[in-house]
Amino acid sequence: MASSRLVHAVETGTLSLPSGSKVLLLEPPADANLDVFRDCTVTVQQNLKPAFDAFDAMGVSVTERAASPADLVHVTLPRSRDLARGLIAQAEALSPDGLIVVDGAKTDGIDSILKAVKARVSVDGQVAKAHGKVFWFRASNQFQDWTLPEPAVVAEGWITQPGIFSADGADPGSQALVDVLPKSLKGHGADLGGGWGFLTRHLLDLPGITKIDLVEADKRALACAERNIADDRVTLHWADATTWGNPGKLDWVVMNPPFHNSRTPDASIGQAFITSAARLLKPKGQLVMVANRHLPYETTLAASFVHVQELDGDSRFKILQADHPKPVKPAVRRRRH
């Protein structure tokens, strides 16, 4: 939703949104309520596919990469400092004489961003509310050096980009999973939430793999995956892994699912990945996944698969294998009397 901070700033007249203004929203959440911008012409930039689809379904003009100028650019502060700075630089470039509004929670670093911005420009106003702040300033071409770096080579030759998950190299969970990938994985499978391609490229080394669908919601990460993987057996999909694909088509699924919504741990995301994997697999299909030790996935796995076991693990991670997805029972229709 449009944050209560922004709504408060507009409703109290602290921040003015002139009728008819061209407004660009950079990376707002999927559940954003745009009523506060109802008298403006709104365009949304969104790299996450679930949010992109949500805005598209609402009839909002949405793009992966905004290029048209705007009178006002609103930046929803992301978790990544590099991406946050990159979005502010992009906002200035797209509104060279306009107003830049930055809105975020304390847990996402709004205080440090505000301090850094104040060191360069005069801030016209700010509102502190709901464990965060919204502030705004006039663009003055002071943030070009904050421009988000292009994808580049990091550790061990992998190409990544600041602002995506595990941008400095492979995360420990994925590395642990690679070490114990079963050689029984054969045929056509999917890497759900495949990021910039680390698991997929190692899956290609298994002798029985014929085709891999890498499914990733973050378009920036997917662009890196395209450069990390050069193999005709791989197809890249910009999609929500929890809704992607046709039922019963895959021999196997491998995944390291996300478990955060903003900075708040959310086990329901990984649970939705498990349910999706069961839906996608053939009757004798196999799921192999890695998860943090504390995450409660076993109940969902038991409800979705006939056989579940822990392949390997340590105090931080567990490698789980599940076989033979259970048939989805059709909903019972109640007769009306």
TrEMBL record:
Keywords: Cytoplasm, Methyltransferase, rRNA processing, S-adenosyl-L-methionine, Transferase. Gene3D superfamilies: Vaccinia Virus protein VP39. Residues 159-321 form the Methyltransferase small domain. GO terms for molecular function: N-methyltransferase activity; nucleic acid binding; S-adenosylmethionine-dependent methyltransferase activity. The keyword Iron does not apply. The keyword Methyltransferase applies. InterPro entries: DNA_methylase_N6_adenine_CS, RsmC/RlmG, SAM-dependent_MTases_sf, Small_mtfrase_dom. GO terms for biological process: methylation; rRNA processing. This is 16S rRNA (Guanine1207-N2)-methyltransferase. The lineage of its organism: Bacteria, Pseudomonadati, Pseudomonadota, Alphaproteobacteria, Rhodobacterales.
